[in-house]
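Lecture 7, part B: from sequences to assemblies.

Below are the input chains for today's worked example.
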Amino acid sequence: MISRVLSAELAEHAGQRVTVAGWVHRRRRLKSVSFLVVRDRAGLAQAVTAHDPPSEVGPSGGGLSSANGSAESDLPAEETVVAVTGTVAANPQAPGGHELVEPSIEVLAETGAAPPFDLYRPAVNAALPTVLDHAPVALRHPLLRAPLEIAAAGVAGFRETLDRLGFTEIHTPKIVGSATESGANVFAIDYFGRPAYLAQSPQFYKQAMVGVFERVYEVGPVFRAEPHDTVRHLAQYTSLDAELGFIRDHRDVMAVLREVVAGMLESVRRRAGHAVSLLGVRLPEVPAEIPAVHFTEAQRLTSSPEPDLSPAQERWLSEWAEREHGSEFLFVTGYPMSKRPFYTHPDPERPGYTNGFDLLFRGLELVTGGQRLHRYDDYVRALADRGEDTGPYEGYLQAFRYGMPPHGGFALGLERWTAKLTGAANVRQVTAFPRDLHRLTP
Amino acid sequence: MISRVLSAELAEHAGQRVTVAGWVHRRRRLKSVSFLVVRDRAGLAQAVTAHDPPSEVGPSGGGLSSANGSAESDLPAEETVVAVTGTVAANPQAPGGHELVEPSIEVLAETGAAPPFDLYRPAVNAALPTVLDHAPVALRHPLLRAPLEIAAAGVAGFRETLDRLGFTEIHTPKIVGSATESGANVFAIDYFGRPAYLAQSPQFYKQAMVGVFERVYEVGPVFRAEPHDTVRHLAQYTSLDAELGFIRDHRDVMAVLREVVAGMLESVRRRAGHAVSLLGVRLPEVPAEIPAVHFTEAQRLTSSPEPDLSPAQERWLSEWAEREHGSEFLFVTGYPMSKRPFYTHPDPERPGYTNGFDLLFRGLELVTGGQRLHRYDDYVRALADRGEDTGPYEGYLQAFRYGMPPHGGFALGLERWTAKLTGAANVRQVTAFPRDLHRLTP
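Predicted structure of the full complex, as structure tokens:
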């Protein structure tokens, strides 16, 4: 590894001669001094040199300005990869309160083109399509990479919480033999000459694995051939799935989900604090018990005549929860059977309603979950009730032929979570290389 | 959650009346006593009852035998889901040294069929196709679930090590617009009426993200339309990918890989100790520096006339490393250009050879890695040398138009690693629901 310190570590080396390495974030030549701001994975570091007298030429490439140069172009261009060696000096105006003086610069790799927009400006001066078309370079902008750091920290918290609760991580097939789960919006693939499909979720596999490990989770891609072009749908997204057995009903699943959401936020706070500050993200508090309303009550509150809640009604309910319960999270429980997949466990005390729930966060449906059926005969009956043949489901139903405990689980879409947390209006803003109806590259 | 203790916690509750819950692993009725062995996620617990006098009928369903029964069939069948409440008593013969006496049993869920082979027998008395066809129930066998526990622990160690080294986790597209990486063995998909392909690796994306985060990793599925039916190839497998910038050359990547492998093994030891014991796995030691031989030296040692190493030669080299260096791991470095992808960095001092490496473990190529090209012009030249047009690679090459540091990385196949570690002859034995030329279900 090249010998270097990170930008964030400069203060620890005050008075010493050290090397930082990274990308030229910004070069500025003023009347009597020049600045070179270097970006590395930890942040920014500033090197400064006076022009008069000219800085000495270092052994590995020279000072900030060439001997006779005076134009900004004498400084290495933005995005050039450099190693800058200098003496660490305190300067309250510099990023992190320290800068490098008497610097010498070594160019590690040239850059061949100007970025499509200035990465050094505090704001992103580019429209979303420009950002997405140039993702490999655009994501270097601190404001665009920050949400991805927050996403990574959230996933780490998801796993950490579930590991602590005795869950086991699994990896399940993304290529499946039948398009059973929703029937629509699946991608077809040519599987050695046979038709197959990309999995829309690990639903059936995570349920089967409850029979093996009792408690399982998976973080992985899921695929939806979503024909609508909206700000919250992607053709591929990262699904955070969990499933657990030996529950009494869906409320045990909700209790685990509460722990998971709290653990994700705690991890974001701990691991991505810099990104949180940079974006000005206000992290929500998770109440010890997240308030819950039954679907019928939610309908009454929003005067909804439909057996479903509209996005506007979800927003209204979130505001209501904030107002009435001081919570940015709200469970809506008991969705009607007609609005839930066939594997959803009915509410034994309320015909027509389920033990299924959604978790709303800041006006958006963030998580869907619930108790599932666990008896083979109940599956056969549920499919018959929907006029479906069990044939295509045999692989799925197999697990239930052998004793399966009462169980349930949930799925959280990572991009939706990150968008809502960071205030991004479009999930594409927080996805490195989104896939949708129109976009297949880069 | 139902109120219970785990089988492994019985000793902590000696003398108390507790409930364990799980699956009936085995029922046995002897002349004067009956045993019911319950399997939960932590292991096995035994409940025992004497027949004379008959056990009392508990409030929630009765003793181990019905009042007038004497047949084994009076005990709940294997795989029935039960909660057994009893008093914890020491018994050196019982699993974990304690058992439940004066038990009463509550059936939580019936089972509808006998498993395809006896899950309670110490060995797996079934051929691999039977196991795979019945994976949802077969994987409940302790010997078949143990490798999946070891896999999960290994992945946790992979992440833990890289998190410590400042890497950021990423999630990249599995649907790509062109079949560029190897050109062959890709799955074609219908992407909203346009042709697209399943990604064979996150190679291009992880390289691009070095420009954003310097150090990245991804754990995710990769897809190979592998037309050969072998014991070490799957159509989908879990790839553990890492990539890092600011390296001097491939040796820096090898140093990180050494840490990763050591961290994975440490995690297996810590998190999956029970599975390791059950399978009788001998975990290897990782030397402080893993021995390395240059490809030309490996050729000389194995008298290989070909510009590649055969599986037999890899096995020989592993034995040699064990004999000469006391190491079960061996790096082979400097593979010829002709045997490496176009993005591989050449060895600047040895024309025709690369800064690419393989890591052999117990005779098998476990990891492939190396330094990559980092200059745009070098990519254009490398493609031209292979007679390829840059057109289909434009999305990939974009990252290199803007300064990219010297970088490299590696990919480790989770299933191969787990198979080699556990001594499984076939990767399918350590994959929950494998996909191959013939298998698309369950």
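Note for the exam: Chain A has a mean pLDDT of 93. Keep this in mind when comparing with the next example.
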